[in-house]
Design a protein that fits this description.
The chain is α+β, with helices and mostly antiparallel strands. Helix content is about 60%, strand content about 10%. The chain has a 4-stranded antiparallel beta sheet. The protein is elongated. The two termini are about 25 Å apart.
Length: about 250
Amino acid sequence: MNIKTANRLCELRKAHNLSQEELAYKLGVSRQAVSKWERSESSPDTDNLIQLAALYNISLDELLNGSEAISLIEENKVVKEEDLKKEIILNSSTKVILGGDEASVIYDENNKIDLTIKDVLKWNEKIKVIDNMVMSISAILFTAIYLVLGFTLNNGWSHFWFLFILIPVPSSIVNMIARKNINLFQYEVLAASIYCALGMFFNLWHPLWVIFLSVPLFRLIAGLIMKHKTNPKQDVIDAYYQDIEEDD
């Protein structure tokens, strides 16, 4: 693909107020692939060309300036998929290979899992939506409880403000379960809430500070547990955004 066509793809994307990441999500490819198209380092395949034309509501000829459309489709017949592949090393035992709209997660060189980037991105977006919804519900619910207790109890206003500290805890539980990662649980926030509540109600400020000593213990245990847990989808997400940061 020539530089003129690459520039046109870039201009069309910007004209529709899309970032490379947003366009990649709509097409079900990696952000790296879109970046390579716009730098004339590789070419979108025929299916992606058709998707781009439909997305921008123009014909294939308009997308690629006439004859270039035919030559590019022919060119795609001999494009090697390996040209788009990039290896991202997450840790000593995990690496992810991103290529086009496919991703492979390799654990210890003997356990390979193949995934589709589009499906993984949809999975990630679904969790984000649920997380934001739970966070909003928590904020509304805890605020409502605080107001009710404040108006009905003598010490309601001064004793129940710790409820606001608890707001991120439910969403962290959702994230922990959905992403299968106990490290995402906001244990520190829960510990602080318990400390404040028992301190205000029972004046246990002094002996109860030891609850904070459990925080590093929790993180240590969580880290040990996660060493033996794998989540291929989350590994692809981590590699995907790491690749974006490296390109930037």
